[in-house]
Amino acid sequence: GAGVSxxxxxKVAKRGQDVALRCDxxxxxxxxxxxxxxxxxxxxxLTYFQNEAQLDKSGLPSDRFFAERPEGSVxxxxxxxxxxxxxxxxxxxxxxxxxxxxxxxxxxxxxxxxLLVL
Amino acid sequence: GENVEQHPSTLSVQEGDSAVIKCTxxxxxxxxxxxxxxxxxxGPQLIIDIRSNVGEKKDQRIAVTLNxxxxxxxxxxxxxxxxxxxxxxxxxxxxxxxxxxxxxIGTKLQVIP
Lengths: 118, 113
Known about the structure:
The complex is a heterodimer of chains A (118) and B (113). Chain A has strands at residues 5-7, 10-13, 19-24, 31-37, 44-50, 53-56, 65-68, 75-79, 88-95, 108-109, 113-117. Chain A has 118 residues and is mainly β. Chain A is globular and about 40 Å long. Chain A starts with a strand and ends with a strand. Chain B has 113 residues and is mainly β. Chain B contains no helices and eleven strands. In chain B, strands 2, 4, 5, 9, 10 and 11 form a six-stranded mixed beta sheet that branches. In chain B, strands 1-3-8-7-6 form a five-stranded antiparallel beta sheet, with no helix packed on it.
């Protein structure tokens, strides 16, 4: 079946612009995660959804970052008034079960959206 | 919170040789340790994982070992091939309640033909 998909794959934004990044998780997956990956680094956690509930947003770097998953499937990560330090690859991952529960440990990643803020 | 250290950061091996990547973790309650392979322009892909009740797991040319006492776990790739060239990440997770996955910094493996 289809894996996790993300769009757009590449996004160039001028500083101050708003951007919206989309994630389509694997169908039926309960958990959805967003990560930020800077060049040469490992993924850093941003936020976690269990179905439509955002259970952890402790990794969001500022209030310019906002994520939603209104129907418990597709998720959108929005960054307002982008800054150059927001340039990174944004990864989405999903897992079958709730994080910490059965089927929730193994995360399946999408290809990422590479954001460049000029 | 959990802290995962990974080394080396880069590793070059000749085709056919073995490669070993080592990680340590700080949270003794972590009990699930996945390894991911990330190729250029792609997201991380799970290649193997190990749970704390197992000391070693093998899948063809890939094996993982876990030493819970020392909080060490390692990835071993034997008979390396050029297509093994990628960045490898270790991670640690604490089950039994929501916990974030903590990733290591990554190891860039280059297999020289």
